[in-house]
Design a protein that fits this description.
- Chains A, B, C, D: This is Acetamidase/formamidase family protein.
- Chains A, B, C, D: InterPro entries: FmdA_AmdA (IPR004304).
- The structure is a homotetramer of 335-residue chains.
- Chain A is α+β, with helices and mostly antiparallel strands.
- The first copy, chain A, has a domain at 242-318 and 326-334: Acetamidase/Formamidase-like domains (Endonuclease I-creI, Roll).
- Helices cover 14% and strands 33% of the residues of chain A.
- In chain A, the strands form 4 sheets. Chain A has a 9-stranded mixed beta sheet. In chain A, strands 3-5-15-11-13 form a 5-stranded mixed beta sheet, with no helix packed on it. A 4-stranded antiparallel beta sheet of chain A has the order 7-8-9-10, with no helix packed on it.
- In chain A, helix 2 (258-277) crosses helix 3.
- Chain A is globular.
- The termini of chain A are close together.
- At the A-B interface, helix 2, helix 3, strand 19 and strand 20 of A face helix 2, helix 3, strand 21 and strand 22 of B.
Chain lengths: 335, 335, 335, 335
């Protein structure tokens, strides 16, 4: 019987990380154990009012802190880590968003520079109503308000990269990182390939909600109380992050240009479906072509993210990763 | 009271078109009148079995035929055409898909050439069950089958381009064309800017269903009996195609690389939301950032398509194009 | 013996074109005959001083006029047209350049939109000194001047597209068009596939000089007196424009993103070298990899252009297109 | 008087690195001192015959070894390192090239995946003739040979990245890395921004020659005896690598898609020219537009490289980095 008591991980102020890789674990965790932890918002809590401009109160590159890394008992290179998100509860009554000079999809950036001046930097605050499960958009230049559904998610979940690389947490890649997909909320399981002993999982960048593409570059950022449970699938590698919910099997691709993120996600889904169903590669290509959901994660980071998702009903009951998602769901229910 | 009798447009065999622009209208239609017409499948009906390989039975560039163009009474350059899709009924019991040499997102193509040999060309047939509203996927190399929902849509709807251009129907751009978004089904209204007198609307490329991105390049292609109704919004230009359903307001972008299609769709949605709500541009940018759905249309054509959609509830009742969508819905209900 | 008297083509004011395709020929020309004609600058002569802002004095889409089309005797679909540029002489003492709102590589554009305001629109005039073969750059906000070499070229040379398409002259593609490569100067031969009887060649957009990439979107634009001679290579198709000088064999690729333009140009050069030398495809790939020059044409138009060039000395004397370039050079020398 | 005796750096077998960042310096060097060192070929010397296929004899990620890092005395974050290449002499009589599965620009890759099988893996050997300064291309499937000029260069030169990142040596970015530009040969000076104390310079990946774009992914790879001399420009940051020769001032951009590498290089050159000449930004944009050389570095790595170069004659004698290039040249002449 799995141990379903909750283990609390406490990160000390100096323990938050700004990279995947290059850091010592702050704790060791056991597969199958419920883990509770706090994640900071992407500004590290430094933006508290509309006059706290991120470029003034934050210090580059100390953005997008993650909690961790966590050493997962028994995880070895070549394994896969299954990270199930049990619950996400905003740990602040206020979510924050902003424009940020030369960051976002509708502005010139350091990757897509132009000679134009930057957009104005501006901060928006969103009141969170946990009872109604909403966040309130409040325009900055008029009194227009509208309540939006609270749909909590984690923007950044990843492990130490392969090949001794160390990457800023803002970068999404095959090790995970700043994936920024709204699919990564409670009830979903993220699969990440393990590159180093213990995997060295870290997570953060909670969003009270986010549009697909995260076009201005900043979601409704908020500190989050997260409960997760992790499993190790030994001897099964994962080339690019995958994700599973009760109804969807998803592959994620991180790359530029965006069509390459699309290609990576679709190619991986085709190969995964072929492996799970026994379909030959072109038959799987065909099935995926008629059924896939192809949605933007972020289109603002050093690499962009696309997801390719398929309804699990079309897979005749085939279970990804030996049924890891269902087993983790069972852990939660028995907890 | 609008005239809601149905006008039948019959295209003679030689009347199907392979371009937007460069052709004389085959009929004149009146705004507010229900129009019924038949569209051919993208192969022009020439692929009838799994041994009919498109590269052998079809003759380039005679692919993706459209029905039209239709001269819309009163449409003038600078106006917008609102094309409401009332119903789409498969006109064949069998849908067709295929791989096609050097076409699709997971193969090298003429735009993204490599020195590798092409993928195998193969055809799949899908039995349509109108009662159960399904199409049946049947693997070509095993007996794996699965029923998928029938979700009919039109891949290609457009008008004559600006600047005297003539474009193949396979090309999506600001004049519409091969947009290939699953959003373009019954109950949706497509908005297209008018470039020439009468607009010269044409449509075709029915899909029994399609995955987002249309990754293999070919949906479940099928001839379609379509009923549409068209309106003209005088003096209101439309820079890039937009689309509206009962719940969503959507902007479409067509470009390469895919991030530019994303940028175009999001930029247009931001500006549209600003105009409809009175929000200043950065406030609209913020609202869109937290709420947008960003989904792939096709990622296989000479230009790729992304959609940016927002839930109309967040717009405080503001009505796009003076409420054209609701008015066209009313025409249908009174018909 | 070829007829080497010079035939003068005179385009009347109303005869300049803004598209490839969709127009009747203004003259018929014979292969092997020297042809003399005048091309207008890309502004059609309407920008005459630094206060003539293009967005005010020009009318979209009436930009980038071409002289032609010329019906080439004997050219049939499937043939290749060899267009040899004998000489280019500026027909004005002043070249013109400008920034243009939302056009150029270091600004947001209609293809890569942002929410930033456009760059300032500004005009620069360049005095041409034919004796010294220079053009003089004169800063607009200081008295900095510098003389640059006069290196005349044609930005736009093309034929009617395939598949009944009509494209604005600003678009480079497989039919040629706005290629904007500095390689297209006197002494070079451009090879274009013929899509319609007579080919329907048109040319224009003379540049007194241009940087690779044409980063601000506008070269040193100038009306040009051009002498050309054309040949038809029957039964030899050309998939993407190629170019030859006395020392270089070049393939051009037009696409977005820019890596696809690179891929198209390199893929075509590899295949061309394999065909000319008898090398197998991977051997040709290897030879090209170590020797190619890969340079930007324009990175500002609806499609971008890259060139892939190889020194002809590495080809063991193999002659492209049955030696068309040398034969056209001979025509000139005997003229 | 500078110390112009030559300091020899010897890297022990275990001391070669596969990352920028994350490693301790192997030696400390003084600015203004001639440094002699050996670089390995990109295969670490493991490919010795045409039957040594890289995917079999090399172990990922142990490719592209660099010699270093070298701690440069006095270099501090915010400074710029000027790395002048005095001479490059092949340290092997044979250069090596290859195709490599799913690597190169004319094949599908892990970034641009397709369902096609990979190209054949094949090795080519090039005999080096130091007297004639040539390398001999020898086809693998015929007896076609041709001598190509020996044009030695270093593919990979970089420093430790900012923000505690560690990157594989195959990645070009703002810290340098696998830039793969033929401009980086003897007589050129590379400018790199310093991110950590000592800069931590490392270099390798010698090429006997390389085509622009390095289209098959592998140049004529060879171990190299290099002599360099380094200077520190205190208090002058460098945002993206720059390069200077006796005649050219160049900015490099590393990004995907390739147009962003182009934009970064051109944007940086415009700003550099503006700073050096006092021209306002649009005047510099104009001057660069008419004079720039825009050439591909590599179009095969995780990020692509473009160069933007301008003839120094157009800069009225303005000296970049306080004349560092000329001073380093003087060190060499006095050595």
């Amino acid at each position: 019987m799995p141990d379903t008591s909750i283990t609390r991980i406490e990160a000390e102020p100096g323990q938050y990380g700004y990279t995947f890789g290059g850091r010592e674990p702050i704790a060791e965790i056991k597969p199958g154990t419920l883990i509770s932890l706090r994640t900071l918002d992407c500004f590290g809590g430094k933006v508290r009012s509309v006059t706290d401009l991120p470029s003034q109160v934050c210090e580059f590159p100390y953005l997008n802190p993650v909690t961790g890394p966590l050493y997962v008992d028994g995880a070895r290179p070549g394994d896969t880590l299954a990270v199930h998100i049990v619950s996400l509860t905003p740990a602040s009554p206020v979510g924050i968003s902003s424009t940020f000079p030369h960051f976002g999809a509708l502005t010139s950036t350091s990757h897509t520079p132009t000679l134009q001046p930057p957009l104005e930097e501006r901060v928006w605050l969103y009141d969170v109503d946990l009872d109604r499960q909403t966040v309130r958009y409040q325009a900055s230049r008029s009194d227009y308000t509208v309540d939006l559904p609270l749909e909590p998610m984690l923007g950044t979940v990843g492990v130490a990269p392969a090949a001794s690389e160390v990457r800023q947490t803002i970068v999404p890649d095959v090790h995970g990182g700043n994936l920024d997909t709204p699919l990564l909320g409670p009830g979903s399981t993220l699969y990440l390939g393990v590159n180093v002993p213990g995997g060295l999982l870290a997570l953060g960048d909670g969003h009270a909600r986010q549009g697909e593409g995260e076009v201005c570059g900043v979601a409704v950022e908020i500190a989050m109380d997260a409960v997760i449970v992790v499993d190790v699938i030994p001897g099964v590698p994962t080339a690019t992050p995958r994700l599973e919910t009760d109804t969807r099997l998803v592959s994620l691709g991180a790359a530029r240009p965006l069509e390459d993120a699309f290609r990576i996600s679709q190619d991986d889904l085709v190969r995964h479906v072929a492996q799970l169903t026994g379909l030959d590669l072109l038959d799987a290509y065909q099935l995926v072509s008629q059924t896939t959901e192809a949605r933007a994660g972020n289109v603002v980071d050093p690499q962009y993210v696309m997801s390719a998702g398929i309804d699990k009903r079309y897979l005749h009951g085939a279970a990804a990763y030996h049924g890891a998602h269902d087993q983790l769901r069972a852990v939660v229910r028995s907890g």
